[in-house]
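Renewal narrative, Specific Aim 1. Our central claim is that a sequence can be written position by position from structural information alone. The example that follows is taken directly from our test logs and has not been curated for this report. It begins with the structure tokens describing the chain, in the order in which they were read.
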């Protein structure tokens, strides 16, 4: 399947992330939605996340006081939501992979919005094909290291196991994990770079060791405590604050790693009528766009 860099979702209605350009060719980065929740294991609705994240972004300022940067200084294109085959996780991942490969071939940075966490496998496949030395940093409440969930290997509960198989577990850095099976925790301690419960302290220690390397950052919104982000399918108490999530993005942006892709996933707007989850996600995307597209 081939793609033209146009807006995809026929229901898009012109909504786009604040500050987006209409000129794909001049854009440094491409923001795209992955509206999928075919394998969620508790509460659904993450397929609606990308659209709502865009809609609430209108409430953001285009200036980041954290970075002292304005979105007029960057150029990114909002492609809308990819058309994914309903109920087919394997094919959906392939569609995402093919689109991200096109974005990379055009010399642009991919910024994805999920969707359940399985969608991350698509861009990581594409990015790892271009960058063989890829490292993946995962900020998440869950290990996502199962071999399958209820007999389904293509599950959001297994996405990091797939990624470990793709790039090698020693190239996977898991931070903030506070939920999983005993087997997942034991396997992670033996195989990945596993830093449960915390984010900022281990991130500060590991970033110097990753200097110069291509890095893909995947953020599951449930790494944040449900007090700050209740709008996600499988909430876990004991997470980081919204401020700490933004600090983590800023730490990575200020480091010497080469960010070659980013996504934020598992936002389920129907669960959070207060909108604080989707507002946090949109702010995190603003900071990532500003922080990762310079240079």
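The sequence written for that structure reads:
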């Amino acid at each position: 399947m081939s793609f033209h860099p146009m807006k995809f979702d026929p229901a898009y209605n012109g909504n786009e992330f604040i500050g987006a350009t209409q000129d794909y060719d001049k854009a440094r980065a491409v923001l795209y939605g992955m509206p999928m929740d075919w394998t969620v294991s508790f509460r659904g609705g993450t397929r609606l996340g990308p659209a709502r994240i865009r809609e609430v972004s209108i409430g953001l300022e285009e200036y980041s006081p954290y970075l002292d940067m304005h979105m007029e200084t960057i150029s990114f294109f909002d492609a809308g939501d990819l058309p994914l085959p309903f109920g087919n996780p394997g094919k959906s991942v392939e569609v995402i992979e093919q689109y991200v490969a096109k974005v990379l071939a055009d010399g642009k940075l991919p910024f994805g919005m999920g969707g359940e966490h399985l969608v991350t496998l698509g861009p990581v496949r594409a990015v790892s094909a271009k960058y063989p030395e890829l490292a993946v940093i995962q900020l998440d409440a869950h290990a996502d290291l199962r071999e399958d969930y209820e007999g389904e290997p293509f599950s959001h509960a297994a996405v990091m196991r797939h990624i470990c198989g793709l790039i090698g577990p020693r190239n996977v850095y898991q931070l903030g994990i506070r939920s999983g099976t005993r087997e997942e925790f034991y396997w992670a301690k033996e195989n990945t770079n596993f830093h449960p419960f915390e984010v900022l302290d281990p991130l500060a220690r590991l970033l110097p060791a990753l200097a110069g390397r291509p890095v893909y950052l995947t953020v599951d919104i449930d790494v944040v405590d449900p007090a700050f982000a209740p709008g996600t399918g499988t909430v876990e108490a004991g997470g980081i604050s919204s401020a700490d999530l933004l600090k983590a993005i800023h730490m990575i942006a200020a480091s010497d790693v080469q960010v070659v892709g980013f996504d934020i996933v598992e936002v389920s707007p129907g669960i959070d009528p207060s909108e604080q989850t989707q507002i946090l996600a949109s702010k995190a995307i603003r900071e990532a766009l500003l922080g990762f597209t310079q240079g």
